[in-house]
Design a protein that fits this description.
homodimer; alpha+beta; 8-stranded mixed sheet; 16 helices
């Protein structure tokens, strides 16, 4: 007698039941389709990396979370995002790559997070980036959210919007105000939605900002209205060159986003968005579902000046966004925000009575050759139970065959929705159902 | 100045350049299409598993190869194949699954192999299995190689054949010959292609088989001819019940494979194939490319009586096959056996002169909305160099726009093959190219 081990999986990973997996695959397919329609290369970097290469940047929270282990003489780390591997890949293959390098990558990444709701150890990221060599036109920043928008539109996501800002606008303002503690100041600004103006003010006081500096920052943070109004108000806020040039870029990126197909009401210039302090340098994006801002940004990213400074002296500016798909999927399902499409498991099923197995297999072959997703069920068993299974799997058509059908070279064809069943010549089956 | 870490990857992993990756993705897409057309569920088990669950079976070569590490209180192992996770998944979700459970899984698996040509630490497997609960009709064994055949046909693989045998035929014969050292006897038989008859005979003598036993085994191993001849010869070889019943099954499985669409000349009954001694119990398959048998079986599998005996007392018989895609791809490329399809990077490219960026983005949006894979290139740069890039990427059409085209609301449309270029109204572009 074999000893039984209770089958179970780690906490903090997502594994789906077959019916759920079909929906998840459907989502992956939509994402892949749009990435490819927008002419991004599929990239598939290794999951296992040399630890010293993957962690070249070193330090910080990331290193603590990483899965790292030794095997033989190798010090191995599992990728924890798709950006560091992109940087490593581009630097490594720089002479074999055409720039601008447009790549997408859909893959699992790994983090040894402490157990926490919405945090995963193993999860999908869907990344899209355009990387230039030495230079990259800022209007590429319009294409990136546009491909994400096409995806969310096809997924029928409820009302969402891209929140856009520009790090140069922020930096220009800080320079104008002669604020030196930039990172701290921005980190506090970024929390505005959570902590509110009064607390934000208090924290700015604590780090030593003057009343005038705080007043001007508040004025900036409180800018409201539609994008035209926000831009008009911003324009008057500072005459700093960086501020004005960045504002012009932001204006054009927003215009470009509309030209690329994002509907006006889904684009919001939001002066409080700062993101990734040590990384992004230009446009920054977050994406929120209206009324569900609490679940956080579902798709974020921005423009960076230098992708791979740890791997090459070549300057590689780029722009990208990322969907954390595992968290997004599970959150949307949990909140009832994902319109679940009815995806049939197959286009048609072939059932048979004992003795008609070969005939059933032959019919299935014909249907598959004609491009139909075909389930063939040659197990013996009650036909009623089989029909229930087809209903459950939302298969719209059934072919049923037995001795009579073999003799007459016919098939019984049943419409699972209406229940109507007709016997037709085998030769008519393909023209009838395809 | 940032310190530079030389970008590199581990040995024994495959990472492709963009042009290669497109071909690999094309192959993955074909595999996925046929798995789905044959109505297999996509399954996506976790890569990280609880070590004590994944290694329930324990012992052997596998355990030495595994990547296993601790993080916090977790003892974690990376999956080393897709079969053990399938067993764990089915046992774990047995009440939520409809049987027969038809699943495919395409995913990376991980083995800490010692460095060796053709061995990978991280590689793709493409598995397809049908798992029954308590029972599974043996004609399912015909469907499995048929879906693999459809894939290889669409990939235009050179002449290959499925080598088929039945473990019951072998066991029946061994019983008939009163051979007790079954595993050793079969292990020697399985090496016939490599070591030849004389050496095989010697090894059988060494383990103590009698001259008569060896004579009968040789007679069995030497059976040749087309499938009908082999079956006819086999029938007369032993009157053992298991032998005869298994032979009948084998005959029907081969017939079923033909019915399912595998051309006769690609099916070979081969009495020497034994495979997975402690696992397979019925039909066994291997797949060889003619004239390149040395690269080994490119797709193997078989029928098993009990998938998940380590996780459940429920009997789960099944049948499956697996493609080791990373090894297959790299071997086929290395041997020049993969007919490389010309896959254009995009259907059309939109290029622009400075000042026409928004116009270019608008055109790209229209083309994408019409379903065309569209590259838009808004970087400034020499048009000749851009054309070279399109040629290299095999993009068949180019739209070029500048101030004149904006003013006239036209586009210059270039056929990259003929070099012909025409200026047409923007409104005519979609009807012309889609």
């Amino acid at each position: 007698m074999t000893e039984i081990t209770k089958p179970s999986i780690l906490s903090g990973v997502m594994e789906l039941l077959p019916e759920e997996q079909i929906i998840f695959e459907h989502i992956l397919e939509i994402i892949r389709k749009h990435f490819e329609r927008n002419a991004f290369y599929p990239l598939d970097t290794t999951v296992l990396e040399k630890a010293e290469v993957l962690l070249a940047k070193g330090g910080g929270e990331t290193e603590k979370q990483i899965y790292r282990f030794e095997k033989g003489s190798n010090d191995i780390a599992m990728r924890f995002d798709l950006t560091v591997p992109l940087a490593r890949y581009v630097a490594q293959n720089i002479s074999a790559i055409d720039f601008p390098f447009r790549r997408y990558q859909i893959g699992k990444v790994y983090r040894g997070e402490r157990k926490q709701k919405g945090r995963y150890r193993e999860f999908y990221q869907c990344d899209v980036d355009i990387v230039g060599n030495e230079k990259l036109h800022y209007l590429n920043d319009a294409e990136i959210p546009a491909v994400m928008d096409a995806i969310f539109q096809e997924l029928n996501l409820p009302k969402y919007a891209f929140y856009v800002n520009h790090r140069g606008v922020l930096n220009g303002l800080l320079n104008d105000l002669a604020i030196t503690k930039k990172d701290e100041t921005l980190r506090i600004l970024d929390k505005r939605d959570k902590i509110g103006d009064e607390k934000m003010k208090g924290e700015w006081q604590e780090i030593g900002l003057s009343e005038e500096q705080i007043e001007r920052l508040l004025q900036y943070a409180r800018i409201e209205g539609d994008n035209d109004q926000v831009l008009a108000t911003l324009e008057k806020l500072s005459q700093n060159t960086q501020f004005q040039e960045s504002l012009e870029e932001l204006k054009n990126v927003v215009k470009g986003m509309e030209v690329c197909g994002i509907s006006r009401e889904r684009i919001r210039i939001n002066p409080s968005i700062t993101r990734g302090l040590d990384y992004y340098t230009g446009t920054v994006y977050e994406t929120f579902i209206q009324g569900h801002e609490n679940i956080g940004s579902i798709c974020s990213g921005g423009r960076y000046d230098n992708l791979a400074s740890f791997y090459t002296t070549q300057k590689l500016p780029g722009v990208g966004m990322s969907i954390g798909l595992t968290r997004l999927y599970s959150t949307l399902v949990a909140e009832g925000l994902l319109p679940i499409p009815e995806i049939p498991y197959a286009d048609i099923a072939v059932l048979c009575f004992p003795g008609a197995e070969f005939y059933a297999l032959e019919i299935a072959r014909k249907l598959r050759e004609a491009g139909m997703k075909t389930l063939v069920q040659i197990e013996s068993g009650k036909i009623g139970k089989k029909m229930q299974m087809l209903d459950k799997k939302k298969i719209p058509l059934a072919v049923i065959v037995g001795d009579n059908e073999i003799n007459d070279q016919t098939v019984a064809l049943k419409d699972m929705k209406t229940g109507e069943q007709n016997t037709i010549p085998l030769a008519d089956l393909i023209p009838t159902v395809v």
